[in-house]
Amino acid sequence: MLTDHLTGKAYPCDVTNAQAQKDLTNQIVKEFNGRLDIFVANAGIPWTQGPMLEGELSHYHKVMAVDVDGVWYGAIAAGEIFRRQGEKKTGLDGKPLENYTYGSFVATASMSGHIQNFPQLQVAYNAAKASVLHMCKSI
Asked: What is the CATH number of the domain that holds 20?
């Protein structure tokens, strides 16, 4: 079966740390086959503090750091590898890449990036997910 050849592994990462994302992405590429074909940015946390005026500013910053900055940093980490692979046509090991034309970047957002979601009180989350949608349309 095709699935007999698939492998997967989970890696913890502080997505709010650009260098941590870059280092981990490079580590994963080295661990597998020296190339990156797809990157999925899937981190996200909700707004949990009710009305905007009652929430803590630090919680707003955390939502935006994970939900927006985390995707941005992932796009940079993956994009640098995709660009190198496209220009040099080699993996990290220097071997020629077979069947490579470009990499795919996938970011998960939410229906909350498209609609207001009333009466849920989550303006920071909605704004973050709308940012992800627009980021991906612009990459």
From this structure: 3.40.50.720
- DSSP H helices, the chain, are 18-31, 57-64, 70-88, 123-138
Domain annotation covers residue 3: no
Alpha-carbon span 57 to 78, nearest angstrom: 30
In tens, the pLDDT along 48-79 reads: 999 999 999 999 999 999 999 999 999 999 99
Does some domain include residue 2?
Answer: no
What tokens appear for 93 in the block? 């090991």
The whole model's pTM is what?
A: 0.89
Residue 116 lies in a domain: yes
Task: Point out the catalytic residue in the list 60, 73, 125, 131.
Answer: 125
Tell me which residue of 72, 51, 73 sits closest to 136, measured CA to CA: 72
Q: Given 60, 110, 112, 131, which residue is catalytic? A: 110
**Active site annotation includes 138:** no
Active site residue 30: no
Domain that holds residue 58: 16-138
The total domain count for the chain is: 1
Residue 130 domain-assigned? yes
Q: Catalytic residue, from 129, 131, 137, 138: name it.
A: 129
Q: Quick check: is 129 catalytic? A: yes
